[in-house]
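Table S5 (text form). Sequence records supplied for joint modeling of the four-component complex.
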Amino acid sequence: MLNEFDLFKDFLRQQNLRWTPQRKMILEVFLSFEGHVEIESLKNKIRLHQPDLGIATLYRTLKLLTDCGLVEAHSFQNGKKTYERMFHVRHHDHLICTCCGETIEFEHPLIEKYQLQICEQYGFTLKNHKMELFGICRNCLK
Amino acid sequence: MLNEFDLFKDFLRQQNLRWTPQRKMILEVFLSFEGHVEIESLKNKIRLHQPDLGIATLYRTLKLLTDCGLVEAHSFQNGKKTYERMFHVRHHDHLICTCCGETIEFEHPLIEKYQLQICEQYGFTLKNHKMELFGICRNCLK
DNA sequence: TCTATATTGATAACCGTTATCAATTTAAAA
DNA sequence: TTTTAAATTGATAACGGTTATCAATATAGA
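The corresponding structure-token record, covering 284 residues in total, follows.
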């Protein structure tokens, strides 16, 4: 069964790059998180085991993981990036109630299909998407 | 007919802030752009008329425009923010290149239709939505 | 084991954005 | 109109996340 470690190793071999203890540790710790992870969190957790890991190595490895498609980087207003696992996770969209904050996850295959259509039209290679529907849930309407 | 200038003026008055020539000029030039605008572009265009506008004033004014809802700020991988007009614009979704930050606006009526369908299914009253497709644009693939 | 080359950690540099501050402008009151 | 308290401005230093540099070290194939 294909897993992240094998994928990363293959990617490295393909590019004549090397499998190192640091890279292994970083991937391991990254996978122990869920959702969007900040460099800061990764650094702290990794340094429990490997106190002298350089911050540059961490950034470099996240870049590699992003390049090989296992991870996706996002940028936010605060200037920090977050990193999100992209393998072995199901994608879903969100319904968000702007009144109480309740969120519901859903999927719609036809919407996904039309998204691909649009990307083709503009020459985009679709990597990911985010759809959020904002509204009022039935409880808040009462 | 309500326009951006009046809205901004009202917002300023409400907060005991002042309507200044710089703020007027910045809003004016901002509205002359379409889509996602970078600080750099704004600065260059404004300085044609007002060569000594301070960069801090530009950032501060964009912050105010964002606070009052006329503008929305976005962050991209290259570390730069872009600013997008949020008033008197037809709703559209975004194709976003995670590599260079290029964005393309699009609409797809069928996607909108299925969004409504999903909302009905969950008893949601749809108010607004945000769909962002992240990918690599054709230039970055080269 | 040897050797070419990738990797690492430390740290300086980068760069977009923000904070600071003295001089100036605004707008409401006198 | 003049006065005045407070907001604003421009210049620039500071900030902070990320990247580049470089000498020392580790890796993996010969």
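Note: Chain B has a mean pLDDT of 87.
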